[in-house]
């Protein structure tokens, strides 16, 4: 590997936002694109529910339904919620008018997008960590370290943070970030002990005093169940301990019934799910996409859709920047407007539940 390589656009993060940015740039311009991914691409990802509008976004970046692996995209899940009462209703009647939904196998989906980006011309560096960022008037200089091949340097005209909810590049550059809550997901992947038993093809939300539970069958014959609550509650009640998590799960009305005779191979995992927005306007030739620029409460179902749409808008801002110096500013203003609408909508969602007004979790949201 050369000690120094050059590119037009360097994307830090090989998830859906980073891959979609690369795909959009490669389809609509002749810019050279590189992607840095710190992980080895084998980490387990939680499945995600999406609606049919996803296919319009994928079509824009050149991805067809035929590109999906078999069983990595399952249609027709019923989506239910016990939210605001113990009675189960259609989630769509509570939260949205979108009724056509699909369950993604996120591991296959993420890898498919990254593979497509690579095949269409992006150079991908897996297991590579960014050590330092410097900017001159004309370019970014990024110092990197590959797991086995050592240190090297990339010089790039544009730099994009696609590192996810932690916004690693934004934080390294001192970009202002406004965080709105401390929501976390604490959950587990489960399977039936009887391997011949079919997993029920549905999604269920159920509110409890300390937050809300999420259940979904996954395309790989697993289930995911997780509690969305505040990090302070996890710490106070030691919910990372299996016995405490199980006790809270046993107090649910509906979800516990769906998990009878299931088992898990590991203790509960904890993942950040907080809402935040980054103000990227202070840096020239720099953008953030997906969760790195704005992250949303999972109740909004905005994750994948926003990751890809923000990627498309960021790519267009870069492509048009040569002829219009306001494209980056316009991009940030669009992100601000989306986030403002999200906050208003999220408040409406949470205000539908008023059974635990003395709970610290619900007080913060109502």
UniProtKB/TrEMBL annotation:
Residues 6-323 form the FAD-binding domain. It holds the Pfam family FAD_binding_3. InterPro entries: FAD-bd (IPR002938), FAD/NAD-bd_sf (IPR036188), Flavin-dep_Halogenase_NPB (IPR050816). SUPFAM superfamilies: FAD/NAD(P)-binding domain. This is Lysine-epsilon-oxidase maturase LodB. It comes from Arcicella gelida. The gene is lodB.
